[in-house]
Write a structure and sequence with these properties.
The complex is a heterodimer of chains A (113) and B (109). Chain A is 0% helix and 50% strand. Chain A contains no helices and 11 strands. In chain A, the strands form 2 sheets. In chain A, strands 2, 4, 5, 6, 9, 10 and 11 form a 7-stranded mixed beta sheet that branches. A 4-stranded antiparallel beta sheet of chain A has the order 1-3-8-7, with no helix packed on it. Chain A is globular. Helices cover 0% and strands 54% of the residues of chain B. In chain B, the strands form 2 sheets. In chain B, strands 2, 4, 5, 9, 10 and 11 form a 6-stranded mixed beta sheet that branches. Chain B is globular and about 40 Å long. Chain B starts with a strand and ends with a strand. In chain B, 32% of the residues are buried. Classes of the chains: A mainly beta (113), B mainly beta (109).
């Protein structure tokens, strides 16, 4: 059973471009979380999704950021018109249901030039 | 007030030492508790869940005090490989997870 997969592992974008980060949860996991981690800082919750539904997006900036978890395929975190302050590591985590611990993917390191 | 607070450290201890980390949480409705370990530039990995009665896994012991709303992690006989950042994680109602900022541990030869 493969773990949580994220791609790309490293992504470089210029200011104003779009960044698309993908997360494939573990097999059988229907819950996905996205977190952002700035250098030397802790994990910050962004959004929690179940298949086809956004459950909690309270940690996600209102503008430029969106997330989806379609019925088929990976979860996508999309950042439009990236700025330098978006440079960070973005981790996703999945779990099979309630009352379970989270399993993390290896992260995507976004660098905005 | 933050949902979860940890002493950021750093803790620098010699090999073989015993070290303890504490973590406090603010929401009395918190339901599940975990310790994760994060190595530099890697993803967090579950170290252990924390149960009400306390639990032990080899050199690691976790305790939960619901009355005082704190969680502890004790590491005995520290190894060089224990050097990492230790994250306290709390699950509140539903599937809301809150992470502490982490406590940095360096075990020195």
């Amino acid at each position: 059973n493969a773990g949580v997969m994220q791609n790309p592992r490293h992504l470089v974008r210029r200011r104003g471009q779009e960044a698309r980060l993908r997360c494939s949860p573990m097999k059988g996991h229907s819950h996905v979380y996205w977190y952002r981690q700035l250098p030397e800082e802790g994990l910050k919750f962004m959004v929690y999704l179940q298949k086809e539904n956004i459950i909690d997006e309270s940690g996600m900036p209102k503008e430029r950021f969106s997330a989806e978890f379609p019925k088929e395929g990976p979860s996508i975190l999309r950042i439009q018109q990236v700025v330098r302050g978006d440079s960070a590591a973005y981790f996703c985590a999945s779990l099979p249901g309630l009352n379970n611990e989270q399993f993390f993917g290896p992260g995507t390191r976004l660098t905005v030039l | 007030r933050k949902e979860v607070e940890q002493d950021p450290g750093p803790f620098n201890v010699p090999e073989g030492a015993t070290v303890a980390f504490n973590c406090t949480y603010s929401n009395s409705a918190s339901q599940s508790f975990f310790w994760y370990r994060q190595d530099c530039r890697k993803e967090p990995k579950l170290l252990m869940s924390v149960y009400s009665s306390g639990n032990e896994d080899g050199r690691f012991t976790a305790q939960l005090n619901r009355a005082s709303q704190y969680i502890s992690l004790l590491i005995r006989d520290s190894k060089l490989s224990d050097s990492a950042t230790y994250l306290c994680v709390v699950r509140v109602r539903g599937n809301q997870f809150y992470f502490g900022t982490g406590t940095s541990l360096t075990v020195i030869p």
